[in-house]
C-alpha cells in the first residue's frame, strides 16, 4: 500500500495542476493533489454504457457542472476550487443518450491520506 501511495504521489507531482490562461503564458493555480494523476475526460463508466465521467480541475464539466454544483452549493470558492478548496477536484457524470452528451451529476472531492493502517479517505466537502 505504501509503495502505491508513493507512486501516486510521484505521478501527482509530475502531473500538471489546474492551469488558467491569462494575458501571458499559462499560470498554475490550485494546490497539487494526488487526484491530479487520475485526471480523465469522458472516460467510460464500467457497466453503464450510456454514461461517461470526467475528473479534473475547476473547468471539468464546464458550465453544465457549474450549474449543477450551483443548485446545491452557493459558495463560489467551492465551485471554482479556490481558497480552502484549492486542493479539491471536480468529478462529473455525463449521460450520452440520444440528446448528446449532457452533465447529469457533479461533485467536489478531496483526498486525505491517512496512516498505513487507515489508508485514505475521499471526502465530499
TrEMBL record:
Q: What is the superkingdom listed in this entry's lineage?
A: Eukaryota
- Where are the stretches annotated Disordered? 1-28
Please give the name of this protein.
Uncharacterized protein
Amino acid at each position: 500500500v505504501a509503495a502505491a501511495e508513493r507512486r501516486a504521489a510521484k505521478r501527482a507531482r509530475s502531473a500538471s495542476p489546474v492551469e488558467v490562461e491569462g494575458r501571458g503564458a499559462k499560470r498554475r493555480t490550485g494546490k497539487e493533489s494526488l487526484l491530479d494523476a487520475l485526471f480523465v475526460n469522458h472516460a467510460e463508466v464500467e457497466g453503464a454504457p450510456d454514461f461517461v465521467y470526467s475528473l479534473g480541475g475547476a473547468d471539468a464539466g464546464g458550465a453544465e457542472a457549474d450549474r449543477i454544483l450551483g443548485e446545491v452549493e452557493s459558495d463560489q470558492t467551492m465551485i471554482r476550487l479556490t481558497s480552502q478548496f484549492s486542493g479539491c477536484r471536480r468529478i462529473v457524470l455525463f449521460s450520452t443518450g440520444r440528446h448528446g452528451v449532457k452533465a447529469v451529476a457533479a461533485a467536489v472531492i478531496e483526498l486525505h491520506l491517512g496512516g498505513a493502517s487507515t489508508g485514505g479517505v475521499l471526502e465530499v466537502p
